[in-house]
Design goal:
The complex is a heterodimer of chains A (111) and B (112). The N and C termini of chain A lie far apart (36 Å). Helices cover 0% and strands 57% of the residues of chain A. Chain A has no helices and eleven strands. In chain A, strand 6 and strand 7 form a beta hairpin. Chain B has 112 residues and is mostly beta strands. Helix content of chain B is 0%, strand content 48%. Chain B contains no helices and eleven strands. Chain B is globular and about 40 Å long. In chain B, 35% of the residues are buried. The chains are: A mainly beta (111), B mainly beta (112). At the A-B interface, strand 4, strand 5 and strand 10 of A face strand 4, strand 5, strand 9 and strand 10 of B.
Protein backbone atom coordinates (compact mmCIF):
# COMPACT_ATOMS: atom_id res chain seq x y z
CA UNK A 1 0.00 0.00 0.00
CA UNK A 2 1.17 3.52 -0.78
CA UNK A 3 2.09 5.74 2.15
CA UNK A 4 2.30 8.84 -0.02
CA UNK A 5 -0.01 9.92 -2.78
CA UNK A 6 0.91 12.66 -5.22
CA UNK A 7 -1.51 15.14 -6.67
CA UNK A 8 -2.10 15.88 -9.46
CA UNK A 9 -1.34 12.70 -11.38
CA UNK A 10 -0.39 14.79 -14.40
CA UNK A 11 0.54 18.44 -14.89
CA UNK A 12 1.17 20.31 -18.13
CA UNK A 13 2.59 23.85 -18.09
CA UNK A 14 4.51 26.31 -20.23
CA UNK A 15 8.19 27.01 -19.81
CA UNK A 16 8.75 29.78 -17.29
CA UNK A 17 5.69 28.95 -15.21
CA UNK A 18 5.85 27.49 -11.73
CA UNK A 19 4.89 23.87 -11.10
CA UNK A 20 3.42 22.72 -7.81
CA UNK A 21 2.99 19.10 -6.85
CA UNK A 22 1.48 17.84 -3.64
CA UNK A 23 1.96 14.73 -1.57
CA UNK A 24 -0.29 13.44 1.17
CA UNK A 25 0.64 10.65 3.55
CA UNK A 26 -1.18 8.57 6.09
CA UNK A 27 0.96 8.03 9.18
CA UNK A 28 3.46 10.17 11.07
CA UNK A 29 6.76 10.34 9.28
CA UNK A 30 10.44 10.61 10.11
CA UNK A 31 11.14 12.44 6.91
CA UNK A 32 9.85 12.92 3.39
CA UNK A 33 11.83 12.90 0.17
CA UNK A 34 11.20 13.97 -3.39
CA UNK A 35 12.67 12.19 -6.40
CA UNK A 36 12.65 12.86 -10.13
CA UNK A 37 12.53 10.23 -12.84
CA UNK A 38 13.22 11.03 -16.46
CA UNK A 39 11.65 8.72 -18.99
CA UNK A 40 13.44 5.38 -19.11
CA UNK A 41 15.82 6.26 -16.30
CA UNK A 42 16.26 5.53 -12.62
CA UNK A 43 15.08 7.88 -9.89
CA UNK A 44 17.24 10.79 -8.81
CA UNK A 45 17.04 12.20 -5.28
CA UNK A 46 16.05 15.87 -5.17
CA UNK A 47 15.53 16.89 -1.57
CA UNK A 48 14.83 15.48 1.89
CA UNK A 49 12.83 17.30 4.55
CA UNK A 50 12.72 16.06 8.12
CA UNK A 51 9.60 15.96 10.26
CA UNK A 52 10.79 18.91 12.37
CA UNK A 53 11.39 21.10 9.32
CA UNK A 54 8.77 23.18 7.55
CA UNK A 55 10.53 24.36 4.42
CA UNK A 56 13.67 23.61 2.42
CA UNK A 57 15.14 25.10 -0.71
CA UNK A 58 17.49 23.73 -3.31
CA UNK A 59 18.07 25.89 -6.36
CA UNK A 60 14.71 26.31 -8.08
CA UNK A 61 13.10 23.74 -5.80
CA UNK A 62 11.12 24.59 -2.71
CA UNK A 63 9.65 21.89 -0.50
CA UNK A 64 7.23 22.49 2.34
CA UNK A 65 5.99 20.09 4.97
CA UNK A 66 2.81 20.42 7.02
CA UNK A 67 2.74 17.60 9.55
CA UNK A 68 -0.65 18.69 10.90
CA UNK A 69 -2.18 18.09 7.47
CA UNK A 70 0.13 15.18 6.67
CA UNK A 71 1.10 16.79 3.41
CA UNK A 72 4.07 18.15 1.50
CA UNK A 73 4.43 20.22 -1.63
CA UNK A 74 7.19 20.54 -4.21
CA UNK A 75 7.41 23.84 -6.06
CA UNK A 76 9.58 24.17 -9.15
CA UNK A 77 10.00 27.82 -10.05
CA UNK A 78 10.65 29.16 -13.56
CA UNK A 79 10.24 25.71 -15.07
CA UNK A 80 12.26 24.55 -18.06
CA UNK A 81 11.57 21.93 -20.70
CA UNK A 82 14.30 19.85 -19.05
CA UNK A 83 12.14 19.63 -15.92
CA UNK A 84 9.79 17.32 -17.83
CA UNK A 85 9.79 14.14 -15.77
CA UNK A 86 7.84 12.18 -13.18
CA UNK A 87 8.15 13.32 -9.59
CA UNK A 88 7.71 11.01 -6.62
CA UNK A 89 7.39 11.62 -2.93
CA UNK A 90 8.67 8.99 -0.52
CA UNK A 91 8.30 8.90 3.23
CA UNK A 92 9.70 6.79 6.03
CA UNK A 93 8.00 6.32 9.35
CA UNK A 94 8.50 4.63 12.68
CA UNK A 95 11.79 2.79 13.11
CA UNK A 96 12.19 2.09 9.41
CA UNK A 97 14.45 4.19 7.27
CA UNK A 98 13.12 2.54 4.10
CA UNK A 99 10.89 5.05 2.30
CA UNK A 100 7.56 4.13 0.73
CA UNK A 101 6.98 5.73 -2.65
CA UNK A 102 3.85 7.30 -4.07
CA UNK A 103 2.60 6.77 -7.62
CA UNK A 104 4.11 10.00 -8.90
CA UNK A 105 3.14 13.16 -10.76
CA UNK A 106 3.93 13.35 -14.46
CA UNK A 107 5.09 16.89 -15.32
CA UNK A 108 5.30 18.13 -18.90
CA UNK A 109 6.89 21.52 -19.51
CA UNK A 110 6.22 22.86 -22.99
CA UNK A 111 8.96 25.01 -24.55
CA UNK B 1 31.96 1.83 -12.18
CA UNK B 2 30.32 4.98 -10.89
CA UNK B 3 27.29 4.59 -8.65
CA UNK B 4 25.02 1.64 -9.32
CA UNK B 5 24.99 -0.59 -12.35
CA UNK B 6 22.36 -3.12 -13.33
CA UNK B 7 22.44 -5.91 -15.87
CA UNK B 8 20.93 -6.77 -18.19
CA UNK B 9 19.35 -3.57 -19.51
CA UNK B 10 16.42 -5.53 -20.83
CA UNK B 11 15.43 -9.15 -21.15
CA UNK B 12 12.64 -11.18 -22.70
CA UNK B 13 12.09 -14.41 -20.82
CA UNK B 14 9.88 -17.44 -21.30
CA UNK B 15 7.57 -18.26 -18.41
CA UNK B 16 9.02 -20.89 -16.11
CA UNK B 17 12.63 -19.89 -16.74
CA UNK B 18 15.01 -18.85 -14.00
CA UNK B 19 16.48 -15.36 -14.20
CA UNK B 20 18.96 -13.38 -12.11
CA UNK B 21 19.09 -9.62 -12.30
CA UNK B 22 22.44 -8.22 -11.28
CA UNK B 23 23.13 -5.10 -9.25
CA UNK B 24 26.52 -3.70 -8.24
CA UNK B 25 27.38 -0.50 -6.38
CA UNK B 26 30.75 1.09 -5.74
CA UNK B 27 29.76 3.59 -3.06
CA UNK B 28 30.34 1.19 -0.15
CA UNK B 29 26.73 1.70 0.93
CA UNK B 30 25.51 -0.73 3.54
CA UNK B 31 21.86 -0.83 2.48
CA UNK B 32 20.57 -2.04 -0.86
CA UNK B 33 17.07 -2.46 -2.27
CA UNK B 34 15.13 -3.98 -5.14
CA UNK B 35 11.97 -2.30 -6.45
CA UNK B 36 9.61 -3.05 -9.26
CA UNK B 37 7.86 -0.26 -11.11
CA UNK B 38 4.58 -0.87 -12.85
CA UNK B 39 2.44 1.68 -14.65
CA UNK B 40 0.02 3.31 -12.25
CA UNK B 41 1.46 1.58 -9.19
CA UNK B 42 4.66 3.50 -8.58
CA UNK B 43 7.61 1.73 -6.99
CA UNK B 44 7.07 -1.27 -4.75
CA UNK B 45 9.78 -2.74 -2.56
CA UNK B 46 10.59 -6.40 -3.26
CA UNK B 47 13.51 -7.15 -0.94
CA UNK B 48 16.13 -5.17 0.89
CA UNK B 49 19.41 -5.68 2.71
CA UNK B 50 20.59 -3.56 5.62
CA UNK B 51 24.14 -4.87 5.42
CA UNK B 52 26.14 -7.68 3.88
CA UNK B 53 24.88 -11.04 5.07
CA UNK B 54 21.34 -9.88 5.92
CA UNK B 55 18.19 -9.56 3.81
CA UNK B 56 14.57 -8.68 4.42
CA UNK B 57 11.23 -8.88 2.66
CA UNK B 58 9.50 -5.86 1.26
CA UNK B 59 5.95 -5.29 0.11
CA UNK B 60 5.93 -7.77 -2.80
CA UNK B 61 8.54 -10.51 -2.13
CA UNK B 62 6.70 -13.57 -3.47
CA UNK B 63 8.43 -15.23 -6.41
CA UNK B 64 11.71 -13.42 -5.77
CA UNK B 65 14.83 -14.16 -3.75
CA UNK B 66 17.96 -12.17 -2.98
CA UNK B 67 21.38 -12.70 -1.50
CA UNK B 68 23.99 -10.31 -0.12
CA UNK B 69 27.30 -12.09 0.01
CA UNK B 70 29.30 -8.85 0.02
CA UNK B 71 28.78 -5.09 0.26
CA UNK B 72 28.82 -4.38 -3.47
CA UNK B 73 26.50 -6.95 -5.02
CA UNK B 74 22.80 -7.60 -4.53
CA UNK B 75 21.38 -10.02 -7.14
CA UNK B 76 17.65 -10.62 -7.52
CA UNK B 77 16.53 -14.06 -8.67
CA UNK B 78 13.25 -15.13 -10.18
CA UNK B 79 13.22 -18.90 -9.67
CA UNK B 80 10.41 -19.58 -12.13
CA UNK B 81 9.27 -16.47 -13.96
CA UNK B 82 5.58 -15.73 -14.52
CA UNK B 83 3.99 -13.11 -16.81
CA UNK B 84 2.91 -10.99 -13.81
CA UNK B 85 6.60 -10.39 -13.12
CA UNK B 86 6.82 -8.36 -16.31
CA UNK B 87 8.01 -5.00 -15.00
CA UNK B 88 10.89 -2.57 -14.76
CA UNK B 89 13.21 -3.49 -11.89
CA UNK B 90 15.30 -0.92 -10.07
CA UNK B 91 18.13 -1.53 -7.66
CA UNK B 92 19.01 1.19 -5.16
CA UNK B 93 21.42 1.75 -2.30
CA UNK B 94 21.76 4.07 0.65
CA UNK B 95 24.43 4.76 3.23
CA UNK B 96 23.83 3.39 6.69
CA UNK B 97 21.77 5.77 8.78
CA UNK B 98 20.83 7.96 5.84
CA UNK B 99 17.64 7.84 3.83
CA UNK B 100 18.71 9.22 0.46
CA UNK B 101 18.66 6.42 -2.08
CA UNK B 102 20.73 6.14 -5.22
CA UNK B 103 19.11 4.25 -8.07
CA UNK B 104 20.46 2.16 -10.89
CA UNK B 105 19.26 2.62 -14.49
CA UNK B 106 16.80 -0.28 -14.28
CA UNK B 107 16.18 -3.60 -16.02
CA UNK B 108 13.14 -3.98 -18.24
CA UNK B 109 11.93 -7.57 -17.96
CA UNK B 110 9.24 -9.13 -20.11
CA UNK B 111 7.97 -12.60 -19.25
CA UNK B 112 6.01 -14.31 -22.01
Amino acid sequence: SQQGEEDPQALSIQEGENATMNCSYKTSINNLQWYRQNSGRGLVHLILIRSNEREKHSGRLRVTLDTSKKSSSLLITASRAADTASYFCASSSGGSYIPTFGRGTSLIVHP
Amino acid sequence: IAGITQAPTSQILAAGRRMTLRCTQDMRHNAMYWYRQDLGLGLRLIHYSNTAGTTGKGEVPDGYSVSRANTDDFPLTLASAVPSQTSVYFCASSAQGRDEQFFGPGTRLTVL
